[in-house]
Amino acid sequence: MTYRRAVIPALAGGLLLTALLWWAGTSAQALHLPGATTMMGVPATVELDHWLAPWSYDPPSSAQLDAEAPGGVGGTAWIAGTSYLALYTTALQIRFAAVFVFFVLGALLLVRRLPPVRGRTAAALLALWAWGLVAGTLAVTVSAPWLIASGGHGSFRFLPQLASLIGSGRQILVPTALVAAVVTVLVARVTAKEAGPLAQEAVPARAARLAATAGTAVIALSLVVLSYQSVAAALQTVSPNIGLLSEPGDLLRQWLLLGAWNGPMGTPLGDWLLYRAADVLLLAVVWLSLRRLPGLLTRATVPAMAVGAVCATVLGLLASQLLRAATDGMGLRWGLLHLFAGLGGGVPAALTCGLVAGVAAAVTLRVAGGRTKTADEPEESDEPNGSHGPTGPTGPTSR
After folding, report:
1. d(Cα 370, Cα 375) in Å, to the nearest integer?
2. Nearest to 345 by CA among 304, 306, 313
3. For the chain: N or C, fewer Cβ within 10 A?
4. How far lies 24's CA from each of 19, 29, 63, 148, 149, in Å?
């Protein structure tokens, strides 16, 4: 599919995702009405407000017009409060614009390389859903400095504040990104019908398995090695004295660790193994996704493999979080909202590790595919008809 045809569904999905997040943020004001807690209960109201507040234009108390700025009195405080409110509004404008831009860029590549036709519909839907979470996380990240400054204390522990903000607003991204992905796929199916037959690149099974193993090994490095408690603690406590950029430990944890675990110390072995099953599920989802990805792509380029690996890692995280929610005996006691509060976490680390995993898988695929072709050349040269390459659809170099 050409970029001209892929841009239509990408724009449709980006506009819908931005509109849904704006509507969700606007709806947060209804939670502050007197009857909200009576109808929904205090815990549910507080939880929903926590989910929607990062996308709401309703400013916090520190950015209100009548808030007194640090060290200010009278008219000076009012002017400072106006400036903080303007910074908050700017942060939200940047956030919504960034959601649209990031989703469109990723969806454009995914729809072009993974068009939802010929058995690819489910894969394209899942990939676009995962990319919606990535786009929202990136939007929160790039707008966070303005949001920190609107609080009036941007120079105090800037990196820990940034790390705290990056993980906000992720729960509402899960349903809104799914709706945007469904619309993107539906529009892409319409535009793909007029595109004619799509090219299909045959991939040797052995090369695909090696590529999936190499990519999964990168994810396992974060999930098993870096996320182990002693290693994670060493990353958490990194604190060079370099002024505004000191104390980057929280930020490193956000962008490098896909989980957190320790040995079964004081915990029954059965419960510990049940909790670790979620990590096994994550790695299984990543391996299976990377194993099928080269065959689903119209062309297994490095950017397409990298974005696909990011989406596979996010899907693995969602699967593991759903499994943990289903096996957590404490979840139902606090209600469904609390049960699913952990959804959408770990996306920054999935982006970092997924990009590395995708590049590793793409390089392995090229190397392993080249070796397979070289190994097949003596057999191909012995064909009676004198041909020097396979012509069937299953040949390693067929297009």
Report:
1. 9
2. 313
3. C
4. 9, 10, 21, 22, 24
Per residue in 8-66, pLDDT (tens digit) is 999 999 999 999 999 999 988 888 787 777 787 777 888 888 899 999 988 765 455 44
Instruction: Give per-residue pLDDT as tens, 310-321.
Output: 999 999 999 999
162-203: pLDDT as tens digits: 999 998 889 999 999 999 999 999 999 998 886 666 666 678
- In whole angstroms, how far apart are CA 109 and each of 149, 273, 294? 34, 39, 14
Nearest to 285 by CA among 130, 128, 117: 130
Q: Do 201 and 396 meet the contact criterion of CB atoms below 8 Å apart?
A: no
CA distance 287 to 378: 32
Q: Which of 227, 132, 221 is nearest to 124 (CA)?
A: 132
Distances (CA, A) of 100 to 17, 355, 391: 7, 21, 44
Alpha carbon 1 to chain centroid, angstroms: 24
